[in-house]
Specification:
Blueprint: H1 15-22, H2 29-37, H3 46-57, H4 60-65, H5 68-72, H6 79-100, H7 109-121, E1 127-133, E2 139-147, H8 157-166, E3 171-177, H9 187-203, E4 206-213, E5 224-226
Parallel strand pairs: 3-4
Antiparallel strand pairs: 1-2, 1-3, 4-5
Helix pairs in contact: 2-3
């Protein structure tokens, strides 16, 4: 059954109309969330779902850090709505970083994994990204490199290093997801990484790490594999 739509609410309860008339600052967090959700669920409006989200997580800061799985535990929040919320909060965080003029420090595999984890959960095929870093290991930007079939990732060095050169990056961290949830590197992952490391050495741009994102399990509480942590990344110094 179709959920309660915002346009079915009384006019004075429609957050879109209230925003247009009064401005965004006049709306409560639940009303702003309702605009993102668009529709409610059986017997509940989007505003009521927004209220429950705020009550469950307690603050916008905590809500913004919630995983897609945690968001999905709230009745009426399916995968698409969870992704919409996560996208909105991520955009807000990135805008705040721009306003502050301070790029995040990504000098450990855990920081890189945390920065990209939620975005990569939404992908159903392998998705390779290059995290471009400056000499202080602060983020310049994240560059999309390629999408591939599940368990198959094809990439040419020029696709990685062209944007790195343009951005004047001194190092690159490769990141991709395993849709299966198991972040164990494949032979293809190892082969591609070695090829990119060699190409980076020629261009004087270090491939600092390759991180594969998966699911957290009892066997892998981090939910990722770092080639550097496992000794799988070979620099020019180590041969």
């Amino acid at each position: 059954m179709q959920g309660i739509r915002i346009k079915d609410l009384p006019e004075n309860e429609r957050p879109r109309e209230r925003l247009a008339k009064l401005g965004a600052q006049a709306l409560s967090p639940a009303e702003l969330i309702a605009i993102l959700l668009r529709t409610g669920t059986k017997g509940r409006s989007a505003v009521e779902i927004g209220d429950e989200l705020m009550q469950k997580f307690g603050s916008l800061n905590v809500l913004a850090r919630a995983s897609l799985e945690d968001l999905g535990k709230v009745k009426g929040i399916g995968r698409d709505k969870a992704i919409a919320l996560k996208s909105a909060f991520t955009l807000a965080a990135r805008m705040a970083q721009e306003l502050q003029g301070e790029a995040p420090l990504l000098d450990t595999p855990e920081l890189v994994a945390d920065y990209l984890r939620d975005e990569n959960r939404a992908y159903e095929v392998e998705h390779l990204q290059a995290v471009l870093l400056n000499s202080r290991q602060k983020l310049i930007r994240v560059e999309h490199i390629s999408d591939g079939l599940v368990d198959s990732l094809l990439v040419h060095p020029r696709e990685v290093f062209r944007p790195a050169i343009a951005a004047n990056a001194t190092s690159v961290v490769l990141v991709h997801n395993h849709p299966s949830g198991d972040p164990t590197p494949s032979e293809a992952d190892l082969r591609v990484t070695r090829d990119l490391i060699r190409a980076g050495q020629l261009l004087k741009i270090q491939v600092a790490d390759h991180i594969i994102l998966g699911h957290r399990t009892a066997a892998n509480s981090k939910g990722y594999v770092s080639f550097r942590e496992r000794g799988l990344v070979f620099t020019s110094e180590s041969g």
